[in-house]
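>> received
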Amino acid sequence: MAAPSIVLIGNLVAMGSPLGLLCLRVVVASFIASGFAAPSAQQARHLLLPAPSHRCHECEYVVAEEDRGHSDGDKQTIADCFCAKPKSLLFRCKVAHKIKAIKVKYEKIVKQASNAIIVKKDLHVDRPVPSSNTRTHREPSILSHVEDSKIPKRDQEKDDIISKILQYNEAEDDRTVLSIVGLGGSGKTTLAKHICHDYKIKEHFKEMIFWVYVSQDFDVDKLIGRLFETIVRKKSNLQVEQNMPREISNKLGGKKFLLVLDDAWHRAKRGWEQFMVNLKSGAPGSKILLTTRDLKVAEIVKSRHIFELGMLSEDESWSLFLKSSGCVEEDLGFQYIEVGKEILNRCSGVPLAIRTLGGILSENKEISIRCKGLVTFPESIGKLRKLRTLELNYADDLESLPQSIGDCQDLQSLILYPCRKIREIPGTICKIKNLRALHISECSFLKQFPSEFTGVFSNLQTINLANATQFQELPSTLSCPLLCTLDLSRTKVTMLPPWVTTIGTLECINLEFCFKLVELPKGIGSLKRLAVLNIKGCSKLRCVPSGIGKLTRLTQLGLFVVGCGRDDARISELENLDRLSGKLEIRNLKYLKDPCDAKKACLKQKNGIKTLVLDWSLDKEEKELASDVEQEQGVLSALEPPSQIESLKIKGYQGPCLPRWLMEQIGHLTSLESLDLVYCGALAELPEGIGQLSALRRLFIQGCPALQCLPQSIQRLTALQSLVIAECRALASRYKQGVGPEWHLISHIPFVRIS
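>> returned
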């Protein structure tokens, strides 16, 4: 069974003193990418969250627990409130906007957790949170164990509630309801647990203390089933539904009981009345204790007593933090205390947030960091020998990492996103042999790796330099035998070093919008496991190397450039790439002389391609070739797209007419939403069947001076939302808005621009 994980996402500063190390260990979250793959939304969970609200009652602190080893679906979450924005330090804590419900065995989870903790904020607590709760309704752990309270304020509130529970008034009915109301994380459930474990309550109600978890997914029949299982101690799914109320009544008949209804959200009065009728058989003095975040719920169930829990004061928060962390105030320096209290002030007095931060310290967890406003990073980071993940987000003023980072021998993930002023990565990073993921994205000043960045990275699986817009080249020699992902998108790399083609484990090479890239390594066809070779937007790429057709696992290519050299790939190499999907642009079609070669590309069979660009134009630097009209017509005819194509662009084509699949058989393109015809100088007519394109929403025509008119059937394109005509003099005159002789054919289109 995999250990549960607890994830904390927040932003705090690390100081250069030992205090910085303390803050680092307290506030940071660590993620371990499962299977050592690149972090994903499910694995890393390090999204940037909304800024904090100034109204603390709208903030929630969320600790999300995920036990992936359970097959019975026993997965829960724990939610509470946390908000951080210290005035004396250059940092803030980010938190997210959804609460999740409370997990049963919290103490056990905390001890087992090896990952991180999430702090979420700006949460509207009166909004129900989508939940997949499957918490056991008998809650055996809640009624079998509870740790001692560390909050004097809650002890006093507990005594007040117990006195009301034990109080008997003959005027009261057989089931008096008391409610505990408070924000998530304020300690409602914990307080109810302590009440159930109080010796006076146990003595008064004997064995008749029951606990039912309600949740926001209120269903009367299911709730009665939970009540049945709790009281009768039998499985409800094995019982006749009509018999359960009778058995509940028999069990409670003439006996005083205490029933806790935990985490109630339902506001419909009728639903509660249908449920409460099952509790009438109890003896006078029976009590129902309900916990809820919503005062309205407490009123609907006709609570005789309502106890609203407040948040802890500054002194109470500090006291709880010391008890939870095991720290002794006398042993802490002035700076420790000052910063510690600043942090706790932003917890808004929420007990669970404070306990969690204290728990991190007491258990010495492995950590990562997310922060904003960080100017310097402490050399003491090297003392964190067990640090597995270091994550710096939005440290916009940080220019470098300390050399001591190389001493973090257990570091597996280094994530900088975005640290815009980072200019270099310390050479000592080469000492970290356990490094598995290196993410340095949106670092605008980083140009290259240090000269020491050589040798063998035996565990490195991900290199992500996306949006490092000044990065120019990878080291000429490097060994990463387990590398799976190489992301250099939007960098200034001009070519890939030869060692890239020797890594048989590579599955993804992302070079999207590398405007300086001029060539790919010749041996790229040897990367048999490659599924993504994204070269979309590489405008200076001169050709694709021969052998690309061997990459039969490719699902994403983005661009194919027809070359004229002996070592360049022929377009027929696309034949076996049947898994291609998304967008495919085929450029430099002027170099394609043989329509039969184009036919072998089998584009029609590649149903995953949704956007196709066929481009005959050449770069400005290349010599313009004379057009062979018959040849171009044959090539376009052979490059018929799949029938499910959604967007088609034809650029630089010099034939006078379109191929048969566009003229006579256009009706089979039932999914086509966008059609672009750009600089097709000799094109004289459009297909009359264009009116059959029921899905067409956009038609763009530019630089087609030979076109004299649009098909009459264009008026049948009721889905067409946009028509743009540019650099087409005859069309501009004929369809001029309001005055053109055939303006009426296109006047139904919402957006028309003719220039």
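>> The domain at 660-755 is CATH 3.80.10.10 (Leucine-rich repeat, LRR (right-handed beta-alpha superhelix)).
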